[in-house]
Amino acid sequence: MPLDRLTFLGLRNLDSLDMRPSAGINLIFGANGSGKTSVLEGVHLLGMGRSFRTQQVKHAIGHDSDALVLHGRLSGSPPLPLGVRRQRASSELEMRLGGERVARVAQLAEALPLQLINPDAFRLLEGSPASRREFLDWGVFHVKHDFFAVWKGFRRALKHRNALLRHDRIDLQSIRVWEHELVQWSERLDALREAYVERFLPVFEETLAGLLSLPGLSLKYSRGWDRSRALAEVLEQGRDSDSQMGFTQQGPQRADLRIRLERRPAVEVLSRGQQKLVVSAMKLAQGRLLEALTGRTCIYLIDDLPAELDIEHRQAFCRWLERMQCQVFITSVEREALAGLWQPETAVAMFHVKQGRLMDHGQYDFTTE
Ligand SMILES: Nc1ncnc2c1ncn2[C@@H]1O[C@H](COP(=O)(O)OP(=O)(O)OP(=O)(O)O)[C@@H](O)[C@H]1O
Ligand SMILES: [Mg+2]
Predict the structure, then answer these.
(1) What is the pLDDT of residues 200-233, one digit of tens each?
(2) Shortest-distance Cα residue to atom 16 of ligand 1
(3) Which domains are present in the chain?
(4) What's the CA gap between 255 and 132, in Å, rounded?
(5) Closest Cα to atom 13, ligand 1: which residue?
């Protein structure tokens, strides 16, 4: 479901913003520092309960404001309103969905599946496995209803085992109980992740092929413990070493997606532009798979699309966005950098941000340029 209305108050430098985005492509252009990324940040906060620019939401509160109040409305009958509010004086992020207070960010995330592609996107390849696990779990979460319960059960069992490992003397009876529990949840979590990757791979390969030619690129799921051994055995035999380290060294908390070109880690071989395209293909593929499996589309936030991509690759990227028929918010400093990228039949809604004020420029027909 696309967002058909956004109202933001107290977000960074943005004046009170009232935006009526189109259900398709929304182009947001404006000078450096005008507030484009802040608009995407507002949508991200609505769907994820956190920013992609700062660990602390309070930094996104406008310098002259006491609170950040963001509302969005998902179109549909009836429409679904959602909102978040963060006051400077409080550390709590208040969240609302359908007029009711909600306690968990997962409830917002479920209603508003988002994908962000920004100039930091290459970090998905370069950064720690945690970011790739988060990517993977986003996919599983949105297509498997039991994922969240399984994940919570797993986290709880892991926390208990880790706490027991840190005791001076390990209580064998207790730790065995939690290890048993941990194994049950871990196996379920692993099965969900593995099944997801199996569905994801062909979609990813097809999406990537539409963006660039990279024969030899492979993506493999690594579950976090030795494939040839049962987790129960790994935990039992690793107990002393885990106790010395103070945490559980193997298990789903160490899962990863290994992305390689031939035999080398892709990040060591690919150019920055190629990395951005590989990550874009991963994120586009997740949206395509979400739609194929659930009939729901996700919303794409694309910050600074032209950065690092030549015209040919920008076009290939835009072809996918058009084919997917999902809602997209794209920013660019230069309006012209995004001209000539779209098929004549694609409707593109234009918005100009100038010193924190967003102005609706209506539909734009790039073909006349
Ligand atoms: N908490 C805040 N309160 C008020 N203004 C802020 C706050 N945080 C950042 N800013 C300012 O908000 C402005 C908008 O930043 P934003 O990153 O959204 O711009 P942008 O249009 O994406 O720029 P660029 O093209 O350089 O990426 C900047 O001038 C920044 O200094
Ligand atoms: Mg920006």
Answers:
(1) 999 999 999 999 999 999 999 999 999 899 999 9
(2) 35
(3) 1-113+297-369 (3.40.50.300), 128-296 (1.20.1050.90)
(4) 9
(5) 33
